[in-house]
Amino acid sequence: MIVIYDRKGFDALLTLEGNSLKGANLGSANLHNANLVEYNLSGANLNGAILTSADLRLADFSDADLTNADLSDADLTGCCLEGAKLAGVKIVGTKLGLEHHTALRAAGIKLAGLALELSVKG
């Protein structure tokens, strides 16, 4: 059984049968303020999901369907979007890294005026 909690870890937002979110059907799920740090959501259906203010750092969304998902104010730092379907995704106020630029542009998302997180490793 998988329980997805809010960012503070107090409130259970969703409980699912199984032991993995890989390929899970979470279409239209309300995961506002969810803590999905380092979760493997590769191949998952998140079409229309609400992920506003979610902590998605280092999550794996490779080949996931995020079509029309709302990622507003979410933190996507270090997450993998390789092969993800991103058409219609909402990213207002979303914390992104430069590594997401190519995937978002390929989905036709305009990045003009969008603040990207930059970090220098030294």
Commentary on this structure:
This protein has 122 residues and is mostly loops. It has one domain: E3 ubiquitin-protein ligase SopA (Pectate Lyase C-like, 3 Solenoid), CATH 2.160.20.80. The chain is 5% helix and 7% strand. The chain is built from 1 helix and 2 strands; from the N terminus they run ββα. A two-stranded antiparallel ribbon has the order 1-2. β1 and β2 (12-16) form a beta hairpin. It is globular. The N and C termini lie far apart (41 Å). 34% of the residues are buried. Mean pLDDT is 86; it is low at 112-122.
Characteristics of this structure?
5% helix, globular, two-stranded antiparallel sheet, Pectate Lyase C-like, little secondary structure, 7% strand, 122 residues
Task: Give the SSE map.
Layout: E1 2-5, E2 12-16, H1 101-106
Antiparallel strand pairs: 1-2
Q: What form results from the Cα inertia axes?
A: globular
CATH superfamily, please? Answer: E3 ubiquitin-protein ligase SopA
Count up the helices. Answer: 1
Q: CATH top level?
A: Mainly Beta
Strand order of the largest sheet: 1-2
- Which percent range fits the helix content? under 10%
Give the number of DSSP strands: 2
Please indicate the percent range of residues in DSSP E strands (runs of 2 or more). 5-15%
Radius of gyration: 14 Å
In short:
This protein is largely without helices or strands and 122 residues long.
